[in-house]
Amino acid sequence: MGTTWPRVNIHNKTEYSWKKFMVCIWWDQLGVVYYELLNPSKTITGILHRSQLMRLRQALKEKRLRYYSRHDKISLLHDNSCPHAAVPVKKYLKILDWEVLPHPPYSSDIAPSDYHLFRSMAHALSEQRFTSCEGTKNWVDSWIASKDKEFFRLGIRALPER
What we know:
By secondary structure, this protein is of the alpha+beta class. The chain is 43% helix and 12% strand.
């Protein structure tokens, strides 16, 4: 007497692989100065972050000329503790003579990118689905363009309260 196994219908399961892109963004009370989308495979290292700061410096010269023409001090608040602590980044920031504001590690309630910018972006992203990096970049560009100066000003002005 043999064992009989019930017949089971086998269906191919469609696998969805959602890629996540990291947005590295630098902004001030006037708006976004510079941003990059990083592929999921990228890790932010000290070398990469220094390269980003070099591109940020160029973007500041193009978009915020008054910082350089009036010799205004540039203050930088990192929202994480790892990349900006790397030796290449520290050396480059010293060369630039930018003021790096102290930031307690793991304090997302203090980082304006977390409590203001990314919260708003996440809300707008809730119904979005992208199929390419280019589509994601286009959406980020249009989201940034949809925000007025007051949006960014409010995010920076709320910082002392936190």
